[in-house]
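Backbone Fold Data
Goal — fold tokens
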Amino acid sequence: MRRAVPLRICLIMGIVMIIQFFIPHRYSQDFYTKVLDWNIIIGIFALVLGIQSLFHSEWTKVRRRRSGWGFSVVTIVAVIVVAAIGIWGGIGEGSVFIKIYRNLTMSMQATMFALLGFYMASAAFRAFRARTKEATVLLIAAIIVMFGRVPVGDLVWHKLPDFVEWILMYPSMAVQRGILLGVALGSAATSLKILLGIERGWLGGSK
């Protein structure tokens, strides 16, 4: 019963949402708006569970003195302090919360993206080794695109930026659309499996 009821609710709601997508009536749009409101409410409860899970995992590291437990202490203190500042000090323009977000959080996000750039460059170097014909084509195209995106490429050949735009607009776009088409078909297949109860991993197990 604990699995049958969620599966039936999922099936009914899935069919209803599919129908309302193809029938843009006022009642269906109102129903869709109500569902989005309920999603926000459920998301709030999910946020509470996420915070509880964060505190549980980080406090376990601190209590057992695992490797890097000092970072867990910083995480717990930062979450409590920033949440308290946001609740009692407000989150409006010019507030302490916004200053913390802009001067600390955004700086840390920029640092993470900068580090990801080095990892991507390293992965690209390993992937672009000309071991096969396909890898050679990929390597040549990558070099052309990189040179066409910097001022040096314009100095090498004044038509190189236009050639790079052609590569991005036609061959690259064709590949991207093929990938998106495959992703869309995979998403549709997974959605049907969930609606029909074949895929039950979201219930906490497959049995």
Summary: Residues 1-88 form one domain. DSSP finds eight helices and no strands in the chain. The radius of gyration is 25 Å.
